[in-house]
Each structure stands twice: as structure tokens, then as C-alpha cells.
Amino acid sequence: FSGQSEVQRTALILIALGISAVVAFWALRQGSGRLTPVAAGLLIGGALGNALDRMIYGAVVDFLNMSCCGIENPFVFNLADVAIFLGAIGLMFAPQPQDPTIADRDKNG
């Protein structure tokens, strides 16, 4: 997203803030286990970190390059990206609370 216009930058900031709000609201309503709030916190923190970079510096600075030992890796990212990735993976594996009506229906056949 380098060379983005002011409109694109503002849109990305608003999208990050909106998704963070939705994930926070959803995570607070889940109330199950420890993994959900930790994973949601990582995802929200990463998104807000990238949004803050865009607000302050006008862009997100990616500085982690995993190229090493003659192996060229085209991917460059930052710590906020790592937090977003780990949070998303955590939310995929977090236990979901069961809907009592579905659980009762399954028991009663």
C-alpha cells in the first residue's frame, strides 16, 4: 500500500478501527475460555498499531525481512502484522460457546 492517497489512507484507518470495534464487541460477548480474549487482543492491538502508524507517519513501516543464508524471502512485515496473524489463528482455534437450543435438540434427537 505504498504511495497511497489520503483517501486510501483514511479508508484503511477507518476499516482497521471498524474491524477492531467489531472484534472487541464479539469477544466480549463470547465469554468463553482464555484464548478468545487473548487472540482478540492480539488482533485488535495489531490493527490499531498499523492504524496508528498510518495516522502518525502516513504509512506502515515493514521492517522484518526473513531472508537469510542465501534464501530470498519476498515477504517483509512488522510486529503488528505478526500480532494480527497470531490473533486470527487464535480466534480460529478458540472454543466457541454452544447454543443451548442446538445442544438440547442434539440430545433429544
Query: How many helix segments?
Result: 4
How much β-strand is present in the residues? under 5%
H/E order of the elements?
A: HHEEHH
Radius of gyration, in angstroms, nearest whole number: 18 Å
User: Main beta sheet, described?
Assistant: 2 strands, antiparallel
Number of domains: 1
| Oligomeric state of shown chains | single chain
Please, what is the average pLDDT? 84
Summarize the amount of helix as a percent range: 55-70%
Major β-sheet strand ordering: 1-2
Could you walk me through the main structural features you see in this protein, from its secondary elements to its overall organization?
There is one protein chain. By secondary structure, the chain is mainly alpha-helical. The protein has one domain (6-108). The chain has helices spanning 6-30, 35-57, 79-93, 100-108, and strands spanning 64-65, 76-77. A two-stranded antiparallel sheet has the order 1-2. Helix 1 (6-30) packs antiparallel against helix 2 (35-57). The chain is flat, with a radius of gyration of 18 Å. It starts with 5 loop residues before the first helix and ends with a helix. The mean pLDDT is 84.
Summarize the structure.
The chain is mainly alpha-helical and 109 residues long.
Question: Main traits of this protein?
Answer:
66% helix
Write the layout of secondary structure elements.
Blueprint: H1 6-30, H2 35-57, E1 64-65, E2 76-77, H3 79-93, H4 100-108
Antiparallel strand pairs: 1-2
